[in-house]
Design goal:
CATH architecture of the largest domain: 3-Layer(aba) Sandwich
Shape: globular
Number of strands: 14
CATH superfamily of the largest domain: P-loop containing nucleotide triphosphate hydrolases
Number of helices: 20
Oligomer: single chain
Strand content: 5-15%
CATH topology of the largest domain: Rossmann fold
Radius of gyration: 27 Å
Distance between the termini: 71 Å
Strand order of the largest sheet: 2-1-3-4-5
Largest sheet: 5 strands, parallel
Structural class: alpha/beta
CATH class of the largest domain: Alpha Beta
Number of domains: 4
Length: 457
């Protein structure tokens, strides 16, 4: 559990952020003014501060600057509006970990908080060096999987780790594309140099251009420069605007030419990896992605499988997330009872590994006596999943959390419908087989009007 201070003068947003952080199991203190925020900073020395740019009595930048001077170990996330991008850049230079642009998705806030807390306690760069902007530096990745599909990816990583050819990772949101990219980096000769991530869908076009190619007056402050000698991952590259796609294609072509002629400067010496949740060949057909750029970035294509296609990896992932939660919160590792485990293994996971991680962490926060039960799981995981009956070798849908009467009513209709099929649609035979009257059969089938017509004839 982390200590989080939230400063925002909009009561509704403040309440929303506070509720979300508390649901994640954190000790959260909300305040509405900058002065109250500074007092809380001195009193609490929080692990993380979330501060709005405009908070009435003070500018959020002043609070960030004070925090960096007096509480350098406190991570900072700035919240700003679309019209304040330049100020957001300044916040990052003052030492903020990241920023969120209003209106933001709750999942983005949750993810950013998690990443900022993971970074807490790690050495920060010398203040003379450029501050990292809009890129994410996580703890060393642990790519997990024993399924054939994951074993195939492990084999590819081993073969191409020290090959500087661009890699394209395609797969659904949350499938683990960033983990694959980080594993490539960690397995390569570049593993002692930076690994930088830029989310193409998270920034306005002008700020994205600045991160990729710098300002006209200075081309040194780019993500490629900060990743010198290491690896750059451009996430969700299918969201990159067409104008920037053209610039990126030219930049990568320049890197290729310089590399072949042995004139590659140090600031261009990076391994380039791109990821996309949408197949880029489809984007090309739709006119949303440049074909020449596609061939530049897809020299080594890797398909990252959805979690539902490698369910044998779910128990391993659950154990990993349980270990990580215990380590982060300083608590003992929790256990998952067999019913909750079966629910987790059978759920479809449309959000893939990311959704599984959130579900496990939520369950840890809500569990009692270090034991995770079905009631501790997210409702959508527990409400409708397929459970195989080992004795009968059949599969049932168990809508956990619904009323017993509602469940019985639905099962009655299903049973009647199947019996009708067996009897060729004859309602008289069906009623006789079920031991009920025709009137009861119609009532249970919800056919009152048809019954009335029949009786009136």
């Amino acid at each position: 559990m982390a200590r989080i201070l939230i400063i925002d003068d909009e009561a509704g947003i403040l309440q929303l952020m506070t509720k979300l952080c508390r649901q994640q199991g954190h000790d959260t203190t909300p305040v509405q003014t900058g002065r109250e925020g500074i007092e809380a900073l001195d009193r609490l020395s929080p692990d993380l501060m979330i501060v709005d740019l405009l908070i009435g009595d003070m500018n959020g930048l002043e609070v960030i600057e004070y925090s960096q001077q007096h509480h350098p170990d406190t991570q900072v996330i700035m919240v700003t509006g679309h019209g304040s991008i330049e100020t957001a850049v300044e916040a990052m230079r003052l030492g903020a970990f990241d920023y969120l642009t209003k209106p933001f998705e709750l999942a983005d806030l949750q993810r950013t908080v998690e990443l900022a807390l993971q970074q807490k306690g790690k050495p920060k760069s010398d203040s003379k060096e450029p501050a990292p902007e809009f890129d994410i530096s996580l703890e060393p990745a642990k790519l997990i999987g024993q399924s054939p599909k994951m074993q195939e990816i492990f084999g590819i990583i081993e073969k191409i780790a020290n090959n500087d050819s661009p890699v394209l990772l395609e797969g659904e949101f949350g499938s683990g594309k960033q983990m694959v990219a980080r594993s490539i980096h960690n397995s390569s000769r570049r593993n002692h140099s930076p690994f930088k991530v830029l989310q193409c869908s998270a920034l306005p076009e002008e700020l994205l251009e600045m991160e990729l190619f710098g300002l006209p007056s200075s081309r040194s402050e780019t993500i490629f420069n900060r990743a010198m000698g290491g690896t750059v991952l451009l996430e969700e590259i299918h969201m990159l605007p067409m104008r920037l796609q053209s610039q990126l294609e030219s930049y990568l072509e320049e890197i290729n030419v310089r590399r072949m002629t042995n004139t590659l400067p140090a600031y261009m010496d990076v391994r380039f990896i791109a990821s996309s949740a949408k197949p880029l060949e489809e984007c090309i057909e739709d006119g949303g992605f440049r074909e020449d750029l596609f061939y530049k970035i897809s020299v080594i294509p890797i398909q990252v499988p959805a979690l539902r296609t490698r369910k044998e990896d779910i128990p391993l992932l659950i154990e990993y997330f349980l270990d990580r939660y215990a380590s982060r919160t300083g608590t003992s590792k929790q256990e998952v009872d067999k019913y909750a485990e079966r629910l987790l293994e059978q759920y479809g996971w449309p959000g893939n590994v990311g959704e599984l991680q959130n579900a496990v962490e939520r369950a840890c926060a809500f569990s009692e006596k270090n034991r995770i039960r079905p009631v501790d799981l997210p409702p959508k995981v527990a409400q409708k999943v397929e459970i195989t009956d080992d004795d009968e070798q059949t599969t049932h849908q168990l809508p956990i959390g619904t009323k017993l009467a509602e469940f019985i009513k639905k099962q009655e209709k299903l049973f009647i419908r199947e019996t009708l099929k067996y009897n060729g649609g004859s309602r008289e035979k069906t009623a006789s087989m079920l031991g009920v009257s025709i009137a009861t059969l119609y009532r249970k089938m919800g056919l009152k009007l048809e019954r009335d017509k029949m009786l009136n004839n």
